[in-house]
Input
Amino acid sequence: MKCMLGLHKSHDAVELSKIIESKKQEIEEETQEIESIIIPSYKEKSKTTDEKLSITIGKLHELEKETGKNRKFWHQEVDTIFNKFDSMMKSIKENHLAGLKSHHSRLSKLIQEMTETVKKNKKILLSKTMSAVTSYKSKLHKYRNMPTDIDVKLPSLKTNTAQGRELRIELGEHQAMLTQGALSSLTDKFSYSLPSKLLDKAKMIASIPTRVKPLGHVACVGVDEAWVSGIDKTIRHVDIHGSGRGTVTCQYWPSDITVTRHGELVYSDVNKTVNIVRQGRTETLITTPPGWKPDKLCCTKLGDILVSMFTTDFSQYKIVRYQGHTVRQEIDRDEHGQLIYKGGALTLYVVENNNGDICASDNNAKSVVVVDKSRRVRLRYDGTPARRKKSFNPAHIVTDSMSHIIVTDKNNACLHILDQNGQFLRCVDNCGLDKPNGLSVDREGRLWVGLLNTGEVKVIQYMT
Output
């Protein structure tokens, strides 16, 4: 009445009862949609996910049974080979089942939350308290956006038994093989892929212009594609023909990039985090402890992530093995308590070899350092056997299917190839590798070498 008769009489007035009635009508319609449409949809999705979970467990169980059956065909190397496959299966189960269980749990929680919302809404509709109605906040938009379904891709198991000659087993992208060299017993030779011999002269298969200058890092994806990055905030996806396949924008420029066994991009940045890109979304995977910053990365075949990190004053380096968010191993001191890696402003690159050795390119010490599973320093390589004109300048480092250790040498425009025991085999220096910087190996066993100044990536075949 004051608004009608007083100073406010210039504006329209609506009875409060009509506003309340309109608001209640809105709540009633919303409650009806949640109860009759959205909750049943979630329940159906939960049922489907539960069925998928059961099917996945069954299939994984069958895969485990199949790998178990093949044990009787393998002799001298059976324990080594199948222990690796068991570990792979355990990791696959943890990754896939954890994702499905998490998705199922989230759906269940949302169903419970929506059921509670319906109950509360019904109480509001019966309530005579105006504040209960006017303070109502809608959750309809949240509930309409159902969580994205989980896509489970299980590896296939393939076996081949040529009695008396060859035994082969393959699980997804990993394979092992035993060959018989004599009738008396099986040899101890087995490998994880087919390439087996170094070429006398390496061959350049392709030269890819990336337009990233300076080019810092290369990480292969499958056979004919790779991620590349420099000192800007963009990581680019290119193929062997030089075509762009997409980009990822970072908050800070990446210190390193790598790819998981499932093809997901992982990168570290100066903001103390290691991040993973899943379905176009960036998630923080690891945050380093206070006083440490992440640097170089390696995704292992069994799903762990190795992170080299340094103190903020560059006085100390270490390599940390993460399984998910959990620290499983730290490598910084040898069996005598001495620091393994040298402090300084340069970087420590890291990779894991097939036998479990941790191979590092210690640029501050100008050497390659190999540490075994018990943190014992197996070897140090300083480049002397290669007899190059300039001093050894090791940087990016990889290993291949034959356990070769391959490291870039920017000073001498070449790659050094060592066997797993640090024995120098040869240099790749005939493919125009001016300032080789990024380095990766694709699934066909070819090297992708990034050139610092030109931004090119050279694809090199160096094994038969």
